[in-house]
Specification:
The chain is an alpha+beta fold. Helices cover 49% and strands 11% of the residues. The protein has 11 helices and 6 strands.
Amino acid sequence: MIVRPSDELAAAFARLGGEEDGQVWSELWDDLCHQGEVYEDSFLALPYLAAIATGRAPGALQDAVLMAGLIASAADDEHGARYAAEFAVLLPVARHLLDMATDDRPTFVYLLQCLLAFEGERVWSAGRLEGLFYEEYEVDCPRCESTLFIAFGDHGTFASAGDYVTADPVKTPLLPADPAALDPLPARLHRMAMEAGHEGAARGLTYLFGRAMCPDCAGDFVVSDQVAETYL
């Protein structure tokens, strides 16, 4: 089946390249990826985004890659095959932008997810790395199902079964993973974060792929397993 973009979508992208680009991008994000959601019609934007990312059409390079990466993260096998050419040309552009994202941790993490999405990774590309700049995750204990906060920022490094900012909950320490013992994917992410100068993100990865103990039932679990299951 050949899926063709609508004239309305073509007209929206044709508006880029002028003084109102900020407004145009805002409208495109709202229409195609409202509040981070990806729709079937969102995929029709990929050829336009690839053209922008490779300089064949006007528009903001980073906006194009970030939007395409979000869309790619929701691709199934059919979409992956249909848009393989777009992902192939977007991948080196994402790498280039990632190499330059040395100052802003959120941008670095978003681009890291884009890179994974264009490579076909569908777990950690789908928003699950964003806790690295929030410095916390909310997960469920796999044993007693208590809702837990996994924190590794200014408030300390611990698991808590309550709101650790406004309450005084019981906390248990986290056990970070040894970077040298990480599996290939998290090891690669850790190495890329260190090379980019994002030591905070690299440190967060050791907690994300480390272990925690539930304060309610003392159940021990791998944090990343629960993040992967909770952040669907």
